[in-house]
Each structure stands twice: as structure tokens, then as C-alpha cells.
Amino acid sequence: MTADVLVPFEQVLEKFDPALGLEVHVELNTASKMFCGCPTEFGAEPNTQVCPTCLGLPGAMPVVNVKAVESAIRIGLALNCDIAEWCRFARKNYFYPDMPKNFQTSQYDEPIAFDGFMDVTVPNEAGEGETFRVEIERAHMEEDTGKSLHVGTSGRIHGADYSLVDYNRAGIPLIEIVTKPIRGAGERAPDVARAYVAQLRDLIVALGVSDARMDQGSIRADVNLSLAPKGSGTLGTRTETKNVNSLRSVERAVRYEMSRHAAVLEEGRTILQETRHWHEDTGITTSGREKSDAEDYRYFPEPDLVPVAPSREWVQQLRGTLPENPTARRARLQAEWGFSDLEMRDTVGAGALSSIEQTIAAGISPQAARKWWLGELARRANEQGVEVSALSVTPLEVARVQTLVDEGKINDKLARQVFDGLLAGEGTPDEVVEARGLAIVSDDGALGAAVDNAIAANPDVADKIRDGKVAAAGALIGAVMKEMRGQADAGRVRELILEKLS
Predict the structure, then answer these.
(1) Residue 15: burial class (beta carbons within 10 Å; 0-12, 13-18, 19+)
(2) Which of 294, 319, 344 is where one domain is finished?
(3) Do 371 and 457 fall within a single domain?
(4) 147 and 200 housed in the same domain
(5) Dihedral sign (CA 290, 291, 294, 299)
(6) Among candidate residues 239, 242, 244, the one with its CA nearest the CA of residue 272
(7) Does one domain contain both 94 and 161?
(8) Which of 319, 334, 360 is at the close of a domain?
(9) Residue range 310-340, pLDDT digits in tens
């Protein structure tokens, strides 16, 4: 592929104003598909979770999944949307091999949720949060397509030797959340795009309607970008970068398209309204196909489905099930724990917020909980290539380890060995301490003997202490700790050394 000519990002803002539009597809975690009873388990053998309805066979009749409608309403409410009193599905007609019916059952001009907003916090260089309001145009229900696998060196349909299609995903419930044009972000446009998708993902997870795994495609972002002459107040021709599957890539795709658009416009050419593919390895976009307008899809009402008319009582009942907004929750916890902005950002970034919250609830200090989850446990998670929350150590066990430290039964160094045992499945923290013989020795007899050995082996250090240089005791304490494999009570060892050499 040929690299595009780009204008340096800093120069783009000298002549152009960017406008963003984000379309996020959320795959719901319902047990069955949107219009049939087929299971939705991820990773099943290809074409084993299909039936006449999701394969589009003649005579098959769809039935709406009520759990999916409930999830759609809860998402709409969490995004401050109005919920339609009456809405219906439509057929979006287009041909593609992974679309078995040659149309997608979706919603068009009558979505279930509309006119909402989300306030997005974007950190600035000073580490403080700057708020941008992202207006939501609509959140509508639809079904997913199948999955095409293009076999060949390119990995894409152009140049493939042949293609395979897996229809397991066809018919899985989706909610598509579409923003209104986001204007006025300027140089912060890439950061706003990333922050919006990140906060939206957190909200979806908090609602419990999807696992929102970007790496598995259960949440995918389409990034629309246009440039207009600076100060014109107009919107330029947009491109849509499809299926961007990481937060970092969302930011990079916006930045790249801004630079590419500017180069095209400065050369006096026009932007082609098209879909584009994002390449994670090279950090560029390439042309996909010309973007169709709504009329090209020949939308018309789905004749096989009755309208959806959620009662106001049901909507209010679902409003009562909404969790605390994730952004508000983070602000509350940060204030309660006394974390700095940087500490809280690291906590959230590590995916350890809930683990730390549960550990603190078990009775230990916020800083102690943060120390273990973002230090020792984050390191081990990184070594294993998993999220820290996926480790086989529970918040209650972390709290118990810290309690053993606070009680003087182990120290931080020994606690790391306790975590070894916990990760190896050797039992509770107390059982690991006993089985591995990790308890700190406080017995004066054993400690006294080790102190005598250290004094005899280091007479010059002992003389310094006798002469009043108490700081030199650290060397003897280290010698005792080494002899006792780190299990000596350091405070008591110091007391014994000073007693013997006073």
C-alpha cells in the first residue's frame, strides 16, 4: 500500500477546523440473538449457532428479544436520552456475503433512544480535567452481520485467494450509539475521541449489558472526520474509518485522517466521501468503498415485526436500575481515598479500580491497597499477559496479606512470597504463611543469637555504635535479616543491638 501525503498535525489547525462523529457498536451480552433463539457464545465452531431465522431462509419469522430492548432502554437512559414511546425496525438493504438476508434489520428514522449527551473529561498537560459535552443523536437497535475471513497474503478481500463466512455472529443484538458532530475541540479532537469511547465503554460495563471487549469486537468504533476552512462554521466532506478496535487506535485514526484531509485540501483536491480501513501495524488508513447515503440503502419498515412501544412505567422502572455513573463514581472514590489525579488515572488505567475498592472495603488503607494492586500484582499480571483483575488473587486475600503485615506477622518482602503461594493455589494467606514458614521471628532467644553473630562478624561496625554512631546499626540489622532469611522482626533486632552495644 502507498503511504498518503500528510500535513504535520500542528499545521492542520492553522487552516482548518475539525469535526468528529463517532458511531459505536455495542454487542449486547444477551443469551440469545436479536430475533431468534440461537446462542451467542463467543468462540464457538463456525456456523454452529445458526437457524433458519438468522440465516434468512424463506418463511422464517423473527421475534424481538425483550432483554435486548431492555438493555437498549437502559443505555439510552444512562446517556441522558429521550426514550421513544413508539418505534419500529426497518430493513437496510445492501448486499455483502456476510449478510445472509441481503438486508440488515435495524432502526432508521425511529430509534428507541435519541437526543442525549455525555460529558467527557479530557486530561490536559497540567493533569487537570477539561470537560467536553458530546451530544448523542441516537442509540438504536439492530442485528450484527456474519464474519468474513479473507484468506491470502493481504488479509483483505482485494487480493484474497478465497473467502470463508461464519454466520454465528449474524443476528447478535447490537446497539449503535451515534453522536452529533463534535465541533470546537481543535487540537484536542483526537483526545476527545479517545476519552469519549473510553467513558462510553466504562458506562456500558457498569450497566452490565456487554463485556465491552474491544479486542473481541464486542465494542467497535467507526470514526467520522471532516475538515472545514478555519472560522467558516461549516462542515466538510467526511470519511468514515471503520471498526477501530482500541482506544489508542481511535486517537491515532483521528490524528491521521486530520493530517491526510489537510494534505488533500491544500493540493486543491476534494475529499471523497468513503469508508476507510485502519491498519494497526502501520498506523494509516486506506480506502475501502465510497460511502453510501441513507437513501442508497432503500430503508423501509420491517413488515415481519410489530412496533416496539415501551410503557412509561417500564421505562421508569428501568431508570431505577441504573448504576452510579462511572465518572461520578471515580470522582467520589478519589475524594474518599485522597488519591491525586495521577494516582487515580493510573488506577483506572490499570483496570484495578474495582479491585482496590473491594480491598479497601475489607478494612485496609487506600494507599496500602493501591500499593499491592498497582505494584506487585500489576507486575505479575503484566508477566502473564492478563488484566490485573484476572489474577487468581481476590481483594479479600490482598486485604488479609496487608493485615498480616500490619500485625507484624510478616513484612512486605515476605508478603511477596505469600502472593507467590496464593497465585500457585496453596490456600489462604494464613495457610501459605504457615506452610512456607514465612512468619516473622520475634523470639528474643533466636534473635539474640543472630545479633551476637552479626556483632562478632562486624567488630568495626559494633565499635561505631559503641561510639554513639547509632545509624551504623543498619548494617548489623541487614546482617541479621540475611541470616534469618528476612524473617526477623527488624524493630526488635534494632532494640537488641543497641541494648548489647550501649
Answers:
(1) middle
(2) 319
(3) no
(4) yes
(5) positive
(6) 239
(7) yes
(8) 319
(9) 999 999 999 999 999 988 899 999 999 999 8
Note whether residue 194 is domain-resident: yes
Q: What is the residue range of 486's domain?
A: 444-501
In this structure, the answer to whether residues 477 and 458 fall within a common structural domain is yes
Tell me: the pLDDT tens digits for 106-138? 998 999 999 999 999 887 766 667 889 999 999
Closest CA to 382 of 344, 352, 413: 352
| Contact of 51 with 37, CB cutoff 8 Å | yes
C-alpha cell, 153: 497474503
The answer on 188 and 69 residing in a single domain is yes
469, three cell numbers: 554512631
Of the candidates 74, 154, 76, 150, the one whose C-alpha atom is nearest the C-alpha of residue 113 is 76
Q: How far apart are CA 392 and CA 202, in angstroms?
A: 23
Quick count: other Cβ atoms within 10 Å of Cβ 150?
15
Whether 425 and 462 map to the same domain: the answer is: no
Report DSSP state, residue 487: -
More confident residue, 73 or 391: 73
Q: How many domains does the chain have?
A: 3
Cβ–Cβ under 8 Å, residues 38 and 49 = yes
**pTM across the whole model:** 0.80
Cα separation, 38 vs 56, in Å, equals 13
Angle at 48 between CA 44 and CA 52, to 5 degrees: 140
Q: Which residues pair with 106 in a beta bridge?
A: 90
- 138 residue type, one letter: R
Half-sphere exposure of 502 (CA within 13 A, CB side): 6
Closest CA to 374 of 392, 355, 393, 360: 355
